[in-house]
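Problem 12. The chain below contains 347 residues. Write out its predicted structure in token notation.
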Amino acid sequence: MLGPGLAAAGVDLTIVSIYPSGLDEAGLQRLGVPVVDLGRNGRGDRGYFPRLVRTLRALRPDVVHAHLHTGQYGGRAAALLARVPAIVFTVHGEEPGGPVRWVADRVLHARTSRFVVFTEAQRRRLAAAERIAPARIAVIPNGVATVSGASRDALRAELGLGPDVFALYNAGRLVPQKNQLLAIEALALARASGASRMRLVVAGDGPLAADLRELADARGLHEHVDFLGYRPDAPALAAAMDLFVLPSLWEYMPLALGEAMMAGLAPAITPWEGYDDFVRDGETGFVAAGFDAEALAAAILRAYGDDAARATIAQRAQAAARAQFDVGTMVRAHVDLYDSLRRGRGA
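Solution.
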């Protein structure tokens, strides 16, 4: 979304993909932005780096915007060698530590014009952990596209959700951070408390898939937890559900949460650091008092027990998401950032 949006806003943009982009001709046409594919063959292939430096020297950009691990190190270092006037780095998550990376970050951070994060909580954490002046850190939430698809009734029929089922929905990678094990434990407690109509639908794949299935079986929930696997239409499935559940241990920018709220689904979440940048308990969602199954079950049961309140909160959640995750707002914020650096105001 950002690339095409920037191009539409008049930014002369080229995407440099260090690893193979996987885009075919049709995909490139849909993207509508030139892509230079360096074709790095695994992490042992260091020949990509001189190719990257040569590419940047040929492009002569005013700003290089680096992303992810390779951008954090190789991208920023190549931009320095290519004498790019301004470097921006989006912090998507925390990288493993170590003395070499610590030194590399100290050198590269000092020469990075701006850092982009997604929330105020992330800005505070980054400023404190990396000793970066807050003024050098821009908060720009990711944009979330609105999704239109099949009707609620059609989706529920496809998924085998009867009219009386209260469907909890979780979409994301099946990894420890996302903590879907807690959602299953909370479901077991909620059903034991009388919420017999409740069912959990999980869209996603990952290394914890087998563990999640085993836990569901062990809690007697074999018929009450649906594992859909990877679904490219996961955002559209929110229309079939009654409550979005995000039991994560930590988050930076949970796109699945934004997509669910944008679709008009109220969320029930754990209180990970920075959650209140997205969800306000009792206003735009239901926030558990802690990270244990009892606390999450209690938040879910609050939503389950009051249809009118849940509907009101879902409407507020949708309005908040449309304001916070607007794609146009995200694009304009990046354009303003690049323009300030190009004109030398933010150097």
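Discussion. Residues 307-324 form the longest helix (18 residues). Students who got a different answer should revisit the alignment rule from Section 12.3.
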